[in-house]
Amino acid sequence: MSSKELIWAGPSGSLIPTQCSEPQEIVLYANGLNDKQKKDIARAFEHDAYEMGADYTWRRAMVRLKSTLKTLGMGFIGEMLNDEDIDEFSNIDIVLNDYSAISLAEQLGAINSTGALKLRQALEMMSHYLSDEAEKNGEELSKIDASSLVSSCVKYILGEADISIAIEFSALRSRIFSETLSLADPQIEQLLDSPPFYIKTVVSVLLSGIKHEQGAAQEHAVGNISTLIQPIWSHIPEKDRWQIGNAYRDATAAGNIGATKGLKNALLKVKGFDYVPENLRSATFKKAAKSLIDAHFATNNFYTEAPLVSSLSKLGSSIPAPAFIECVQAYLCVYLGNSYGVSNAAFPTAKAELLKIPEDRWRYYFSKVIANDEIILAKLFNSKPRDKFKTLIQENLMYLADSESFDTDILKLVQALADGDDSRIQGIANKLYKKTRE
Amino acid sequence: MTTIEHRSLRVNVLDLIGKFLFDEDFSRNLHLSEGILNLIDSTSAYHEEGEELFPEIFITNSIDDVLETLPFCKTIEIADAETTVGEFNQVLKLCAPLSRDGWVIYINVNENRMSYGLVSTEISELSPAFRSQAVGELSENKDQYSIAYLQNVGNKSVLLKGSETQALISLSLSSNSTSFGEELSEICSSISSDIDQNYRNTAESYFEKIIGEAAIVGHGNLIAVINDNEESLSALKIRHPDGIYLKTPIDLSELLISSEESNSREASTVNRLYSSIVQSMLNHDGLTVFTSSGKLIGYHIFVKPDESENVEVVGGARSRAFEVMKASSVFCCCFYKSQDGNERIWSADNV
Hints:
- The complex is a heterodimer of chains A (438) and B (351).
- Chain A is 66% helix and 0% strand.
- Chain A is mostly helical and 438 residues long.
- Chain A folds into three domains: 23-158; 167-275; 287-435, no CATH class.
- By secondary structure, chain B is an alpha+beta fold.
- In chain B, 38% of the residues lie in helices and 25% in strands.
- In chain B, helix 1 packs across helix 2 (30-43) and helix 2 (30-43) runs parallel beside helix 4.
- The longest helix of chain B has 21 residues, at 197-217.
């Protein structure tokens, strides 16, 4: 395998014959379901209960995905999601929403990027049709949409009798905790040449080991972050650099000497102490932003976003630097909405808060953050959120269009947004999105 | 005519400070070595308004570099002045009464100017003390700056510690040499030995912090550890009945774990409250007893010799008590700190 190849990637999905277009035919290929479950789904579709059939299929797929992720341990999942409220005693069905489960499965190579993209689209569709608003407007899931959802679920999750975490990932994770690796190690050489998507996954694995493992496993994780930090630092997305700084602060607060020493040494090597939060104020902002993003990707988001965006805005207009990325992402999610529109109740607050963000912070967001902000880049694939972003730039952020400090692709994206050139926006967003993982 | 031989403690200590500053790569500065000498002299027995104070002080040539690795550090600058020996005395006068509860005095000395004030790195009751962050096991000074930490560690003894070297300066003429540090680590390790492995290291550094603080401000301590079982507790009560045995032991390990897991204000406050009362118990007369699982089970315990035990009767009351504790076969580890700062440790495993 050349070092340019991906170090682990999820399977491209199980094969469904092209002539199968009816949901009840597709579901026969769901080897992960038992006969009764297949029959129940087929029966729902035969009786034109598309919503019921699609909802049941979706739920079975998510249960399956989450139970696979659970095998890695909830502490590890908490670290991967950078959520300190998740620990070994957490219930996966409560703490892990469908959106995060799909992202995590992609990160760990249980499904590939195309699968993740399709499943996210299916989630958005499912959330919309199950919402109060859709019910009020009498909108119903069409047979075509239901077929597409069932097809994605079967192809990427329910098709195989077992889905599993990528072997390459599991092997690397196990090596990280059982030996101190050198930069000359072929697996490390390959990692150093990989996109940020893989590097940030390894950073999360290392932090999880340093914070939660004991004895030799912790020592190996400390040794490995010390070896890797310098070569990977310039490839680590801003959000994940804050995660390292936060881990150092947490380890100090917990009196975890081994972890504190290891992380301090690593941050010293890259002069990374600017990424250590000075106080706990940012944690409150981050938590509120996370709740808002979770609501945005869940059912009934157009109703649930309003109180949460209001709570976030009431925390104060000056967002602490360590929480800026999460907060701007949350406000943008509400402002851009999804392919079905925006929450009318939440939109004005999100817009007002975005307009309060000073110029230097917008420049920072575009120069350092958006290239790795998969959530916002993916929003630009759909016309409604794209239109909202164009308006934001054209009416308020035109000064960004002649910024010389941006990377070429980012500058092109901003200019395309300013010009309202849909096909260029979509093309550049797609290129940036792929660049994070290919 | 006979000549008078003159030996000066001042010259000796000044010589030691000079060597220390050279080893720690401080630039030559007469005000600095004289200033440190004055600080050592003053802190070795510092009183303000009749109260004995135990200020912690660190001196550096680059405060920004020291604090760079500790972004959560809180700083209060008190003054900025010309570097003179007299200003070092002023530092103590202005800052010593404020140096308590985790606040440490800093002095940033350049060739001509010095600034000083207070810093605190504590972000929770479990976070390591400033000493271990700046000159202890957590210090990561890559020759970026020079640092000297000094603290009165017992009657008339001052610890002077840098990144490379350390010295214990005893201003007493008593023959008892003072030791500092390792004995404390050993007793804390014994108190934590049966605590859940996931929390053992945290517990050890937590006990080092609270017992270390109590030992510095106290006038001598006796601490012992028993195995955490009914037989050991019964044997202890039979052999040493004269003392206060708590009906409900203070389970410090449980408080610590709950504080760490619940991460709540209430758990943190409860932890601070119990830490404070444990420190007072440690400084009460008599022996304080912990179990090997981090529970405080009794204090103010007076040990008496038993005729059947072979005890060497030497030294003062605390020293004799320590010998009785060793001989009484009920403890797995015993710690002694005399009023003049001398520490001793005994472990059943090493007998």
